[in-house]
Write a structure and sequence with these properties.
- This protein is of the alpha+beta class.
- The chain folds into four domains: about 5-145, PAS domain (Beta-Lactamase); about 170-275, Beta-Lactamase; about 290-445, 2-Layer Sandwich (Alpha-Beta Plaits), CATH 3.30.70; about 460-710, EAL domain (TIM Barrel), CATH 3.20.20.450.
- Helix content is about 45%, strand content about 20%.
- The strands form five sheets. An eight-stranded mixed barrel has the order 18-19-21-22-23-24-25-26, surrounded by four helices.
- The structure holds ligand C2E and magnesium ion (2 copies).
- Ligand C2E binds near residues 611, 667 and 669.
Amino acid sequence: MPVSHLKAGSAAGRRKASGTGPARLIAEELRAQNERFSAAVENMSHGLCMFDADERMIICNRNYLDIFCLDAKVVKPGIRFFDILQHSVDIQIASQSAEELYAIRKPYIDGARPSTYEETLSDGRVIVISHRPLAVGGWVSIYEDETAQRRAEVELKEQHRLFDAALANMSQGLLMYSSEGRLIVRNQRFLDLCNGKASDFALGMTHRQMLETLVRLGIFVPIDIDAEVAKTKATLEAGQSRSSHRELIDGRTLFVSRQPLAGGGWVATFEDVTERRRTEERMTHLAHHDTLTNLPNRSMFRERLDQALTGPRVAPMAIFSVDLDRFKAVNDTFGHPAGDWLLKCVAERLQLCLRSENDVVARFGGDEFAIAQFDIKCTADAEKLAKRIVEVVGKPYRDKGREMHVGVSLGIALYPGDGADADTLLTNADLALYRGKSEGRNVYRFFEPDMDATARERRALEADLDVALSKREFELDFQPILDIASGEVVGAEALMRWRSPARGLVSPENFIPVAEETGLIVQLGDWALRKACSAAAGWPRDIRIAVNVSAAQVKSGGFARSVISALAHSGLPAARLELEITETVMMDESDTVLKTLSQLRGLGVRIALDDFGTGYSSLGYLRRFPVDKIKIDRSFIHDLDRRDTAAIVRTVIGLGVELGITVTAEGVETEAQLDMLRKAGCGEAQGYLIGMPAKAADVTRLLHSQALLRQSA
Ligand code: C2E
Ligand code: MG
Ligand code: MG
């Protein structure tokens, strides 16, 4: 209790003063004053210490002792200032020696003016000391521990430094507005982004002034400033952030994001997203365009169509499905670069044919294009465009001295008559196109409802056919082939039958083309091959089996393997198997088909050219691949009573003899026909006259009885 050392406040002092009269009153007053003084000193938030002229302590408070961690038992009134310093050195709170400390204090002690200085203690605390000389000599010192405050200041400074560094190094421009809506922070990056000067964007300006400046200086593309200010105000007041893209006059794009601040005001950041935007635009363009022709692609076309079809009043329109004729021939003859060049030319010509800016030409892939002709008055508008396209696209294409020709076929569906949505319209335009193509090329066809019915029927057939193999709905019939000279059956042709539970017996002429298109023919043909070989394996040793083979099978790869496997499983010698191919197999330019056929022929398998005479260049194909047999198509035999036909048949037979190729006449129905063929020297005959296609068991029986007859003869 250092304060109690005040003489006037001590017990002895009180006793002395307790007299009577004015002296007593004075003493009382003095005592009260002393108590008030002690209480005041003790309750001060600062440390306090008073020294007399002899540099001895008169009084100090608890805070003083606490600040310097001094021992109250040592630091008592009367102690010399130097001894206090020494004590603080002893308890290791002072960071210097007592002499050094004293030397620092001495000028203040001796000075007549109040002064303030500070001292750093060994534990790092900073004590600010206010020194007041007393008139009677001695002094009063007030001590204040400023450590926390100093630390806060340092931290604040550091924060400012970091904030400045962050602002300066941000890749984004930044503006900060106060709660009064005034600009309080603006970084260098913002100025760089705007190519602006600091003086143009003075601190204190409002959001509106900022926008006005940006527009006035020709940085921002003009905007509705009122609306902009109102929008920002509303969203920020609702505590929400707001972002938008700003177009700059120089073509760049800034992404601006505004965030409300907790204590009012907001921060806006600016990012240059020009490159990102351009990349995005390029990506969207790529996603919506065909890279070769730069025309819109299917997805873009669909989008445009969907857009056009939504709305309260949709005007009539025409959708064209466009397909080039003979494009494959250009690719095959002149190569793919020429094909690509031609497609680009076609794209240009199609665009030139359009009469309205709104109409769209798209490339769907390959040689497929589509056109949307909007706002048509009548069907004739679409017809006019179709005619123009057929004429313009059909003109020759000349490049590097070469001349290329393609035609174009068009299918047209009209809105609203032929469909209400994009899918239906496109499908119906396709149906019309297929119909057009099947009827001859270089034409346009409008959609008709029966096309849809045909297509539906076709899809149903495809679906049924797809499961028919696993349901074992296929059978093979066998039709005998006669050696005309000997009058003996020397072979049989396997003919496929589909016994559909829903459709009854379906003719191969109806389902084989479908199986060829869907690709099912590969499996189906494989099945027929195995089945035919195993049936023939049980026949007399000199009887051959003929199996029809589609182009798709031979092209599919693995065909030779499939033939070899059928032979191996049945045990049938290769020489007894005859593969009937048509011209379409030979038409394939690629080497693989001819290689496969040669390979099989090398094994002893015979190759027969079926339906001879019905194609365009049957004779030509005889030169490309050496076949073992030609089968004159039954249409020739049917017309054998006509002189010209008879002449052709005789010539073909003569050609066969000359080349050493067996000639078989198909569809022989009458004795007269057989007679005529015999006279012409035809080798073999097949037809209802010789035998109808029959079940395996019947044919086997027939063949065995023939063999028996021969043996007994
Ligand atoms: P194709 O290979 O020319 O078969 C001969 C066709 O003529 C058979 O028709 C046969 O029944 C028929 N025919 C035979 N003799 C006469 C006759 O005297 N008069 C008349 N008018 N026709 C006769 P089918 O069985 O309807 O087969 C038609 C076509 O289907 C075959 O023609 C062949 O190209 C194809 N085909 C049949 N089976 C298969 C097969 O397993 N695979 C492949 N890829 N095609 C097959
Ligand atoms: Mg045949
Ligand atoms: Mg035939």
